């Protein structure tokens, strides 16, 4: 007797491990988590041997990019969502770049673009973060997003390209995905 065995897979989104953010400064409802970064900005510096939110975003990206819905379990998950979207955007910019040098130029150009904050045209997730209550809060959040985007870009280049400077097809193939059905520019 032949038959099929019904196998049900339950796929779960990877969430941030940064759940205890009570003592961390916030802007627009987003925790300003520490980064392993030498890039100037408002983020506190974390120890180089620890995992930060950028590590999590890059590690979880290839799984999380397949989801259309993302259950937010902590404020850090909001930042993880934003970074997943940003990695998707960066990979789209790297898609046609055949060398690390071309990819670096594309990422630098992406970094020069204006970083919108909640309430401004171009911010990808209206309602995910609260709107800034003052111009100072808007600038703090903008500067944090700029810093975290620059840090993410640098680390992304090291996985999107091999040590010989050629594209890593196992990463760049994800440029075709739409995260949460959002079309990236």
TrEMBL record:
Molecular function in Gene Ontology: actin binding
Q: Which UniProt keywords apply?
A: Actin-binding, Cytoplasm, Cytoskeleton
Tell me where it mainly resides. cytoplasm
**UniProt xrefs under Pfam families:** P21-Arc
**Record has Cytoplasm as a keyword:** yes
One GO biological process from the UniProt record?
Arp2/3 complex-mediated actin nucleation
Specify the domain of life of the species encoding this protein.
Eukaryota
Q: Which GO terms describe its cellular component?
A: Arp2/3 protein complex
Query: Where is this protein localized, as stated in its record?
Result: Cytoplasm, Cytoskeleton
Concerning its family, UniProt says: Belongs to the ARPC3 family.
Subunit details for this protein? Component of the Arp2/3 complex.
The record describes the protein's role as: Functions as component of the Arp2/3 complex which is involved in regulation of actin polymerization and together with an activating nucleation-promoting factor (NPF) mediates the formation of branched actin networks.
Q: What is this protein called?
A: Actin-related protein 2/3 complex subunit 3
